What does this fold into?
Amino acid sequence: MDDCIFCKIVSRESSADIVYEDDDSIAFKDINEQAPIHILLIPKKHIRSVVEIEEEDLQLIGHLVSVANKIADQTGISEKGFRLVLNTGLESGQSVWHIHIHLLGGRKMAWPPG
Ligand code: 5GP
Ligand code: ZN
It folds into this structure.
C-alpha cells in the first residue's frame, strides 16, 4: 500500500530499528516507546485492522503472536510478564492502519488501560 508508513518500513522506503524479520513478518522498535521494551510486530501483508482479518490470515496472526513470544524471551521479559496490545479502531486509539501488535514490557503496568 503506497501511503502506508508500515508498508514503507517493510519495503525499506522508511527506516526503522528492525529487531526481527522473516518472509511474512517484521518487528521493529516503536518510535515513541511507552515502556523499556516496546516493539511493534506486523505482517508484511497490508491488513488494515483486526476487523479486516480474513480466514486465510489466521495462521499469519498466530505466527505474529509466536514471534512476539520469542522476542519477549530474547529480551528477558517473559518471566516477569509483558503485554500484547492490538488497538482496533478509532476509540481504541489506533493511529496506523496496518495491523500491528504492540509488545510492551520491562516495567509494571497498570490495569485498566487508559
Ligand atoms: P496505534 O496507535 O495505531 O496502536 O500504534 C501505532 C504506533 O506506531 C504508535 O505507538 C507510534 O508511536 C508508532 N509509529 C508511528 N509511526 C511510526 C514510524 O514511522 N516508525 C516507528 N518505528 N513507529 C511508528
Ligand atoms: Zn501497510
Remarks:
- The longest helix spans residues 58-74.
- The chain is about 20% helix and 20% strand.
- The radius of gyration is 14 Å.
